[in-house]
């Protein structure tokens, strides 16, 4: 098997979470950069990263990284890369994404054309052909340029890794599955006798991701990836590693998850999502106002993505909601841990308690903080 430098792209603020996932999967030479984690691997690691990474956005093969100040520079550097090692003779290779920040070469459309032309020339020579038909598997090329340094990648995932396949209907302010999984992982909740509660569950993403983590269900096991159609990865490898992922699922551990929302239609959508994810047995859904929330154990974990100003409520409503949350959580759940993500800057003041720790995250492009309150040990 060939060795590649692989990249797991990440939402800003989640790099350390994705890095830990990569290390736990046994990947080697793991390095962290803004918005991405790099590691070494072969075809097996490409499959494992796509099947198992919960918090990464996509998995790429890193083709190269170089400085380019002119379009001639760019053309020659792109042409020098071994595209034929990845792209088949009939492969379709759109230049699907280009960014250029603080670079002399700033025209995205020109960068796109030059990169395409250079790859075409390289592949024509490699395959000794005058024409590339591009009717086969898709190899989407991503170019990320910053301060004249060009990072060149091929997307192995296709659709983003947050597309687990269980969510069809989206509510007004969806939380990506990758972000929801990160919120659970950062809480250190793993199941057992401590319940997990989401009192404003929306379409159930936090509860579902929590159940999948507790049961060790691989997030990508029930979906397909662009690289499944590539000649460089044997079909048997996908089958074997999926089977291995299924065999690692844990249905012996106790798992108690409670999810509720005030909107009955949303709760029905959440239930349908849990059924599609195969974790409906682990989650008890209820339609109720969070004011009715009562403790069901001495210690547990609340994780919530409540409405906030940039989303669904005006400032007065947000302050009333967060003040009530602070009262209820601290009075009824004194020994519990709670974790709340919001973009509202005065959250701690209105909630009535300073967080043990908070972390800056970007949810749907909105700057948020994840306020973490640690309960009794």
Can you offer a commentary on this structure?
By secondary structure, this protein is an alpha/beta fold. The protein is built from ten helices and 14 strands. The strands form two sheets. The protein has a seven-stranded mixed β-sheet. The chain has a seven-stranded mixed β-sheet with strand order 10-9-8-11-12-14-13, with helices on one face. The longest helix has 20 residues, at 108-127. The radius of gyration is 23 Å and the shape is elongated. The mean pLDDT is 95. Residues 6-60 form the RlmL ferredoxin-like domain. Keywords: Methyltransferase, Transferase.
Average pLDDT: 95
**Tally of individual helices:** 10
Succession of helices and strands: EHEEHEHEHEEHEHHEHEEHEHEE
Give the biggest sheet. Answer: 7 strands, mixed
Q: Give the neighbour order of strands across the main sheet.
A: 2-3-1-4-7-6-5
N- to C-terminal separation? 47 Å
Unreliable stretches covering 5 or more consecutive residues: none
Q: How many whole angstroms does the radius of gyration measure? A: 23 Å
Structural class: alpha/beta
DSSP, total strands: 14
Q: Hey, roughly how much beta strand do the residues contain?
A: 15-25%
Roughly how much helix do the residues carry, as a percent range?
Answer: 25-40%
Shape type: elongated
């Amino acid at each position: 098997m060939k060795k590649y430098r692989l990249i797991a792209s990440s939402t800003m603020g989640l790099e350390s979470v994705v890095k830990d996932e990569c290390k736990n999967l046994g990947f080697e030479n793991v390095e962290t950069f803004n918005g991405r984690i790099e590691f070494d691997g072969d075809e097996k690691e490409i499959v494992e990263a796509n099947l198992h990474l919960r918090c990464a956005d996509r998995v790429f093969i890193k083709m190269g990284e170089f400085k380019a100040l002119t379009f001639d520079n760019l053309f020659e550097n792109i042409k020098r890369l071994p595209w034929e090692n990845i792209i088949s003779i009939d492969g379709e290779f759109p230049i699907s994404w280009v960014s250029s920040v603080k670079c002399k070469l700033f025209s995205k459309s020109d960068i796109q054309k030059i990169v395409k032309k250079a790859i075409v020339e390289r592949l024509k020579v490699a395959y000794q052909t005058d024409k590339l038909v591009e009717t086969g598997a898709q190899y989407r090329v991503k170019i990320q340029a910053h301060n004249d340094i060009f990072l060149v990648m091929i997307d192995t995932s296709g659709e983003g890794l947050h597309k687990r396949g269980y969510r069809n209907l989206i509510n007004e302010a969806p939380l990506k599955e990758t972000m929801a999984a990160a919120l659970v992982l950062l809480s250190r909740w793993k199941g057992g006798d401590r319940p997990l509660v989401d009192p404003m569950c929306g379409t159930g993403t936090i509860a579902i991701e929590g159940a999948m983590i507790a049961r060790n269900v691989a997030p990508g096991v029930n979906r397909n990836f662009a690289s499944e159609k590539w000649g460089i990865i044997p079909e048997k490898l996908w089958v074997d590693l999926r089977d291995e992922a299924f065999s690692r699922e844990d249905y012996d551990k106790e798992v108690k998850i409670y999810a509720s929302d005030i909107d009955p239609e949303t709760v029905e959508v959440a239930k349908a999502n849990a059924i599609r994810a195969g974790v409906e047995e682990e989650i008890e859904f209820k339609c109720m106002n969070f004011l009715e929330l009562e403790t069901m154990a001495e210690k547990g974990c609340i994780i919530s993505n409540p409405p906030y100003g940039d989303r669904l409520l005006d400032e007065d409503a947000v302050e009333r909601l967060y003040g009530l949350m602070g009262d209820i959580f601290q009075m009824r759940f004194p020994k519990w841990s709670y974790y709340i993500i919001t973009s509202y800057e005065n959250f701690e003041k209105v909630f009535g308690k300073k967080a043990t720790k908070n972390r800056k995250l970007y949810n749907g492009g909105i700057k948020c903080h994840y306020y973490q309150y640690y309960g009794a040990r």
